[in-house]
Amino acid sequence: MSSTHIPFLDLVGLHSEMEEELVTIFRAALHSAAFIGGKAVQDFENGFAHFCEVGHCVGVGSGTDALRFALMAAGVGPGDSVLTVPNTFIATTEAISQAGAHPEFIDIDERTYNLDPEKLSEFLETKCDPDPLTGRPVSRRTGRTISALVPVHLYGQTADMDRILELAEAWNLIVVEDACQAHGAEYFSRKNKRWQKAGSMGKAAAFSFYPCKNLGACGEAGAVTTSDPDLAHKIRVLRDHGQAEKYYHDIEGYNGRLDAIQAGILRLKLDHLSEWNRQRREKAKMYRESLCSVDGVTLPAEPSWARAVYHLYVVRIQDQHGLQESLKAAGIGTGIHYPIPLHLQKAYSSLGYHEEDFPVTERVAGEILSLPMYPQLTRADQENVVQSVKDYLAAVRRSSSHLVRQGSLV
């Protein structure tokens, strides 16, 4: 076993660098006893709204809360279907189900791993009928009216939003972005002729601040971004037991508030986010330049309309587990995001999907591997990762060549 240790993610190093500043946040909360709501939460909400170029940010308890509340506030509810992708973390579909709706899936683009707009168009045109009153699609598969669409900006790169929004407008669909992995990612809208931030393009967007994210709390946290003041107000009511004024409950809500200590930590880290994202892009460039000519590995594609922030650096290789085990033996941590597509998860067996229903997602799931990626990743450690990938692929080629030679002698 190698003595090298390169973690998949280094949260200890990040927080050690900021320890004194972080402790100051905790002390301030202790001295003020302002643990829920208050100035710390408002300061973060204002700062993150400005960062995402939207009118409003509402802090909540998690990314799952953020997506659930956004869907509910936008009018999604029991009896509806919501379209999303099967190549995402289960929180995306949990939020849909917990809003009372039913998830349905659209396959992904093989280059970006995000929702494929052409497959979305095909689904709407060939597997749905328009509701004569609302114009919304009615799924022939389920008989349900589809009210919303959740494109996931996976691995730190935006989906192709111009085409998605065009289709949503044509079919009267609400668009709520799942931006939980895309803090600061940008999309060049050919329609609007400008770069737009993830979280600013749909009716609303959900962000997670789980500790591993590009902007991570020291615990659970999330937020909804929107430029719709009415929707923001509804989410503030939903997150706080349905009350707009203390003890006056217009609806039955939830306990989904962002606590003040996490908000203070996030506001402190927000000042570093653009630089951390720049560093991630630099490290992605190093991987790309070092591995682009290596046979046997497919690197992330970044279209001209995207500025990814590389929450994850995901490569594809034929023997996913072989490379993972080889890197593990070399002391290098990796991850698989995600090994089992949602339509094949036991939790969703009742949806009635089967193998080969979403062939691109299923093919990708068996080949993807996430390499170490974080702002503090050193050049030397990256070079070690690159060399270990090359060594593994060279060994595979030698083994294949040997088998071919043996076969020719038989």
Write the layout of secondary structure elements.
Elements: H1 11-17, H2 19-32, H3 39-52, E1 56-60, H4 63-73, E2 80-84, H5 91-98, E3 102-105, H6 117-126, E4 128-130, E5 137-139, E6 145-149, H7 161-170, E7 174-178, E8 186-189, E9 194-197, E10 204-208, E11 222-226, H8 229-239, E12 243-245, E13 248-249, H9 260-291, E14 297-298, E15 306-307, E16 313-317, H10 320-329, H11 359-365, E17 368-371, H12 379-409
Parallel strand pairs: 2-3, 2-6, 6-7, 7-10
Antiparallel strand pairs: 1-11, 4-5, 8-9, 8-15, 10-11, 12-13, 14-16, 16-17
Helix pairs in contact: 2-9, 3-9, 4-5, 4-8, 9-12
Mean pLDDT: 96
CA-atom Rg in angstroms: 22 Å
Helix content: 40-55%
Helices and strands, in order, run as HHHEHEHEHEEEHEEEEEHEEHEEEHHEH
Weakly predicted, low-confidence segments: none
Helix/strand class? alpha/beta
What fold name stands as the CATH topology of the largest domain?
Aspartate Aminotransferase, domain 2
CATH class of the largest domain equals Alpha Beta
Number of domains: 2
In whole angstroms, how far apart are the ends? 36 Å
| DSSP strand count | 17
